[in-house]
Amino acid sequence: MSVITLESVKKVYKLGENSVHALRGVSLEIAAGEFVSIIGPSGSGKSTMMHILGCLDRPSEGRYLLNGKDVSALSRDALAEIRNKQIGFVFQGFNLLPRTTAVENVEVPLLYSRPVMHAHERRERALKALAAMGLSDRADHHPNQLSGGQQQRVAIARALVNEPSLILADEPTGNLDTKTSIDVMQALQELRARRGITIVLITHEPDIAAFGTRIVAVRDGVILSDVPNVPRGLPQDAPVALAAAG
Fold first, then answer.
1. Other beta carbons within 10 Å of 28
2. Residue-range domain boundaries for the chain
3. What number is the average pLDDT over the span 195-204?
Protein backbone atom coordinates (compact mmCIF):
# COMPACT_ATOMS: atom_id res chain seq x y z
CA MET A 1 0.00 0.00 0.00
CA SER A 2 1.22 3.49 -0.81
CA VAL A 3 1.61 5.89 2.09
CA ILE A 4 2.50 8.82 -0.19
CA THR A 5 1.32 9.60 -3.70
CA LEU A 6 2.17 12.88 -5.44
CA GLU A 7 0.43 13.39 -8.77
CA SER A 8 1.88 16.12 -11.03
CA VAL A 9 2.41 18.44 -8.06
CA LYS A 10 3.41 22.02 -8.81
CA LYS A 11 4.18 24.77 -6.32
CA VAL A 12 4.48 28.39 -7.37
CA TYR A 13 5.35 31.21 -4.98
CA LYS A 14 4.50 34.81 -5.85
CA LEU A 15 7.21 37.32 -4.98
CA GLY A 16 5.85 40.69 -6.03
CA GLU A 17 5.45 40.52 -9.80
CA ASN A 18 7.66 37.46 -10.06
CA SER A 19 6.71 33.79 -9.84
CA VAL A 20 9.07 31.20 -8.38
CA HIS A 21 8.39 27.66 -9.58
CA ALA A 22 9.58 25.55 -6.64
CA LEU A 23 8.09 22.28 -7.93
CA ARG A 24 7.37 21.63 -11.60
CA GLY A 25 4.97 18.72 -11.91
CA VAL A 26 6.48 16.21 -9.46
CA SER A 27 5.01 12.70 -9.32
CA LEU A 28 6.21 10.29 -6.63
CA GLU A 29 4.92 7.18 -4.92
CA ILE A 30 6.27 5.81 -1.62
CA ALA A 31 5.13 2.45 -0.29
CA ALA A 32 4.56 1.58 3.35
CA GLY A 33 7.81 0.68 5.12
CA GLU A 34 10.19 2.35 2.65
CA PHE A 35 13.10 4.57 3.73
CA VAL A 36 13.34 7.17 0.99
CA SER A 37 16.13 9.76 0.89
CA ILE A 38 15.34 12.92 -1.07
CA ILE A 39 18.59 14.65 -1.95
CA GLY A 40 19.33 17.91 -3.70
CA PRO A 41 21.21 21.21 -3.37
CA SER A 42 19.79 24.35 -1.80
CA GLY A 43 16.95 25.67 -3.93
CA SER A 44 16.25 22.31 -5.56
CA GLY A 45 12.68 22.08 -4.26
CA LYS A 46 13.28 19.32 -1.70
CA SER A 47 12.21 21.47 1.28
CA THR A 48 9.06 22.56 -0.55
CA MET A 49 8.31 18.90 -1.19
CA MET A 50 8.82 18.17 2.51
CA HIS A 51 6.40 20.94 3.50
CA ILE A 52 3.74 19.51 1.20
CA LEU A 53 4.34 15.94 2.43
CA GLY A 54 4.03 17.18 6.01
CA CYS A 55 0.74 19.00 5.30
CA LEU A 56 2.48 22.29 6.15
CA ASP A 57 1.82 23.68 2.65
CA ARG A 58 -0.49 22.93 -0.27
CA PRO A 59 0.25 22.26 -3.93
CA SER A 60 -0.56 25.02 -6.41
CA GLU A 61 -1.59 22.26 -8.81
CA GLY A 62 -1.80 18.47 -8.64
CA ARG A 63 -2.83 16.10 -5.85
CA TYR A 64 -1.26 14.73 -2.69
CA LEU A 65 -2.67 11.49 -1.30
CA LEU A 66 -1.62 10.41 2.20
CA ASN A 67 -2.59 6.84 3.09
CA GLY A 68 -4.95 6.94 0.13
CA LYS A 69 -6.74 10.16 1.16
CA ASP A 70 -6.51 13.33 -0.93
CA VAL A 71 -5.30 15.95 1.55
CA SER A 72 -4.62 18.70 -1.00
CA ALA A 73 -7.72 20.76 -0.20
CA LEU A 74 -8.46 19.87 3.43
CA SER A 75 -9.16 22.57 6.02
CA ARG A 76 -6.46 23.83 8.39
CA ASP A 77 -8.02 21.96 11.31
CA ALA A 78 -8.16 18.72 9.32
CA LEU A 79 -4.52 19.11 8.28
CA ALA A 80 -3.49 19.82 11.88
CA GLU A 81 -5.19 16.61 13.00
CA ILE A 82 -3.37 14.62 10.28
CA ARG A 83 -0.03 16.14 11.32
CA ASN A 84 -0.65 15.21 14.94
CA LYS A 85 -1.85 11.63 14.38
CA GLN A 86 -0.24 10.36 11.19
CA ILE A 87 3.08 12.21 10.79
CA GLY A 88 6.12 12.50 13.04
CA PHE A 89 8.58 15.33 12.35
CA VAL A 90 12.32 15.37 13.06
CA PHE A 91 14.19 18.60 12.34
CA GLN A 92 17.80 19.72 12.18
CA GLY A 93 17.47 21.98 15.23
CA PHE A 94 15.90 19.44 17.65
CA ASN A 95 13.33 22.08 18.75
CA LEU A 96 13.28 20.91 22.36
CA LEU A 97 11.88 23.14 25.11
CA PRO A 98 14.96 24.14 27.13
CA ARG A 99 13.38 24.27 30.61
CA THR A 100 11.51 21.01 30.14
CA THR A 101 12.77 17.49 30.81
CA ALA A 102 13.21 14.90 28.08
CA VAL A 103 10.04 13.03 29.03
CA GLU A 104 8.04 16.27 29.18
CA ASN A 105 9.34 17.24 25.73
CA VAL A 106 8.19 13.90 24.36
CA GLU A 107 4.75 14.40 25.93
CA VAL A 108 4.10 17.65 24.03
CA PRO A 109 2.29 16.14 20.97
CA LEU A 110 0.03 14.19 23.33
CA LEU A 111 -1.25 17.44 24.84
CA TYR A 112 -3.15 18.03 21.60
CA SER A 113 -4.66 14.55 21.38
CA ARG A 114 -8.42 14.15 21.16
CA PRO A 115 -9.97 12.81 23.27
CA VAL A 116 -7.88 14.34 26.03
CA MET A 117 -5.31 11.92 27.44
CA HIS A 118 -4.77 11.61 31.20
CA ALA A 119 -1.42 12.79 32.56
CA HIS A 120 -0.33 9.33 33.72
CA GLU A 121 -1.06 7.88 30.27
CA ARG A 122 0.90 10.68 28.57
CA ARG A 123 3.90 10.01 30.80
CA GLU A 124 3.70 6.26 30.27
CA ARG A 125 3.66 6.63 26.49
CA ALA A 126 6.47 9.20 26.54
CA LEU A 127 8.65 6.95 28.71
CA LYS A 128 7.97 4.07 26.32
CA ALA A 129 9.10 6.19 23.35
CA LEU A 130 12.27 7.24 25.19
CA ALA A 131 12.99 3.60 26.06
CA ALA A 132 12.75 2.74 22.35
CA MET A 133 15.53 5.26 21.73
CA GLY A 134 17.71 3.92 24.55
CA LEU A 135 17.13 6.97 26.78
CA SER A 136 15.27 5.59 29.78
CA ASP A 137 18.05 6.85 32.07
CA ARG A 138 17.81 10.37 30.62
CA ALA A 139 14.06 10.90 31.02
CA ASP A 140 14.42 13.55 33.75
CA HIS A 141 17.35 15.37 32.14
CA HIS A 142 16.96 18.79 30.53
CA PRO A 143 18.25 19.42 26.98
CA ASN A 144 21.38 21.22 28.24
CA GLN A 145 22.28 18.04 30.13
CA LEU A 146 22.17 15.93 26.95
CA SER A 147 24.62 15.53 24.07
CA GLY A 148 23.56 16.55 20.57
CA GLY A 149 22.90 12.95 19.62
CA GLN A 150 20.81 12.38 22.74
CA GLN A 151 18.79 15.52 22.03
CA GLN A 152 18.06 14.28 18.51
CA ARG A 153 16.99 10.92 19.93
CA VAL A 154 14.59 12.75 22.25
CA ALA A 155 13.25 14.54 19.17
CA ILE A 156 12.79 11.18 17.41
CA ALA A 157 10.99 9.81 20.49
CA ARG A 158 8.70 12.85 20.37
CA ALA A 159 8.01 12.11 16.70
CA LEU A 160 7.13 8.50 17.60
CA VAL A 161 4.91 9.11 20.61
CA ASN A 162 1.65 9.34 18.64
CA GLU A 163 2.56 6.16 16.73
CA PRO A 164 2.56 7.77 13.25
CA SER A 165 2.66 5.84 9.99
CA LEU A 166 5.17 8.32 8.52
CA ILE A 167 8.28 10.09 9.81
CA LEU A 168 9.60 13.12 7.94
CA ALA A 169 13.22 13.90 8.82
CA ASP A 170 14.47 17.27 7.55
CA GLU A 171 18.30 17.39 7.66
CA PRO A 172 18.25 15.56 11.04
CA THR A 173 22.06 15.29 11.20
CA GLY A 174 22.84 18.86 10.17
CA ASN A 175 24.00 19.89 13.66
CA LEU A 176 25.79 16.65 14.52
CA ASP A 177 29.33 15.31 14.12
CA THR A 178 30.00 12.33 11.85
CA LYS A 179 29.87 9.57 14.48
CA THR A 180 26.71 10.94 16.08
CA SER A 181 25.12 11.37 12.64
CA ILE A 182 25.71 7.68 11.91
CA ASP A 183 24.19 6.72 15.27
CA VAL A 184 21.05 8.77 14.56
CA MET A 185 20.67 7.36 11.04
CA GLN A 186 21.06 3.80 12.33
CA ALA A 187 18.37 4.55 14.91
CA LEU A 188 16.02 5.55 12.08
CA GLN A 189 16.93 2.39 10.17
CA GLU A 190 16.16 0.27 13.21
CA LEU A 191 12.77 1.94 13.67
CA ARG A 192 11.90 1.04 10.11
CA ALA A 193 13.14 -2.53 10.57
CA ARG A 194 11.32 -3.09 13.87
CA ARG A 195 8.11 -1.12 13.38
CA GLY A 196 7.74 -0.85 9.62
CA ILE A 197 7.43 2.94 9.79
CA THR A 198 7.77 4.77 6.48
CA ILE A 199 10.64 7.28 6.60
CA VAL A 200 11.27 10.18 4.24
CA LEU A 201 14.62 11.91 4.74
CA ILE A 202 15.56 15.29 3.28
CA THR A 203 19.30 15.90 2.94
CA HIS A 204 21.98 17.47 0.78
CA GLU A 205 24.64 14.97 1.93
CA PRO A 206 25.19 11.83 -0.20
CA ASP A 207 26.66 9.94 2.78
CA ILE A 208 23.46 10.52 4.77
CA ALA A 209 21.17 9.77 1.82
CA ALA A 210 22.94 6.41 1.51
CA PHE A 211 21.18 5.13 4.65
CA GLY A 212 17.91 4.96 2.70
CA THR A 213 16.55 2.03 0.71
CA ARG A 214 15.81 4.40 -2.18
CA ILE A 215 17.36 7.70 -3.28
CA VAL A 216 15.38 10.39 -5.09
CA ALA A 217 17.50 13.21 -6.55
CA VAL A 218 15.80 16.58 -7.02
CA ARG A 219 17.00 19.69 -8.85
CA ASP A 220 15.23 22.81 -10.12
CA GLY A 221 11.86 21.50 -8.96
CA VAL A 222 11.95 18.19 -10.84
CA ILE A 223 12.99 14.63 -10.02
CA LEU A 224 16.23 13.82 -11.84
CA SER A 225 16.50 10.20 -10.70
CA ASP A 226 14.74 7.69 -8.47
CA VAL A 227 16.78 4.56 -7.79
CA PRO A 228 16.81 1.70 -5.23
CA ASN A 229 19.76 1.62 -2.86
CA VAL A 230 21.55 -0.92 -0.70
CA PRO A 231 21.48 0.94 2.63
CA ARG A 232 24.62 2.03 4.40
CA GLY A 233 24.89 1.08 8.07
CA LEU A 234 23.45 -1.95 9.78
CA PRO A 235 22.50 -4.94 7.63
CA GLN A 236 18.72 -5.07 7.46
CA ASP A 237 18.64 -8.53 9.05
CA ALA A 238 21.07 -7.69 11.85
CA PRO A 239 19.85 -7.76 15.46
CA VAL A 240 18.65 -4.28 16.43
CA ALA A 241 20.03 -2.49 19.43
CA LEU A 242 16.96 -0.49 20.38
CA ALA A 243 14.63 -1.78 23.03
CA ALA A 244 11.24 -3.03 21.86
CA ALA A 245 8.53 -0.47 22.41
CA GLY A 246 5.38 -2.49 21.91
1. 20
2. 2-194+219-228
3. 94
